[in-house]
Design brief:
33% of the residues lie in helices and 38% in strands. The chain contains one helix and five strands, in the order E-E-E-E-E-H. The protein is of the alpha+beta class. The relative contact order is 0.12.
Length: 90
C-alpha cells in the first residue's frame, strides 16, 4: 500500500466478510516484526459497515500515528469518494 511504503501478505480472506494481512512499513527497519491489519465487512441495512483493526504495533506512539494515518489516507478519502458516488446516482 501507499506506493510500496507498507507491504504484507494475506493471512485470511473471506469474500465480503474479512481481509487480514501482515503490515510492515519500509521505515521500520530490517528487524521489525510485522503488525496485522484486519478489515471486516458487515451489512448494516442497505449499507456496509467497514471495520479496520491494526494490531501488534510497536508502541503507543506508532499506534497513534497509524490511527491518524488510517483516517487521513484511507477512511476519510474513501468516505468522500463514496459520498460523491452516492450523490451522482441519487
Amino acid at each position: 500500500m501507499f506506493d510500496g511504503w507498507a507491504k504484507g501478505v494475506v493471512l485470511a480472506y473471506a469474500p465480503g466478510k474479512l481481509l487480514s494481512t501482515t503490515w510492515i512499513a519500509e521505515d521500520w527497519g530490517a528487524r521489525a516484526l510485522p503488525s496485522i491489519v484486519s478489515y471486516r465487512f458487515a451489512r448494516h441495512g442497505r449499507k456496509t459497515r467497514v471495520s479496520i483493526v491494526h494490531r501488534n504495533l510497536t508502541d503507543t506512539s506508532a499506534a497513534a500515528a497509524h490511527r491518524s494515518g488510517w483516517y487521513e489516507f484511507v477512511i476519510n478519502p474513501l468516505k468522500h469518494h463514496l459520498t460523491l458516488k452516492h450523490k451522482e446516482h441519487a
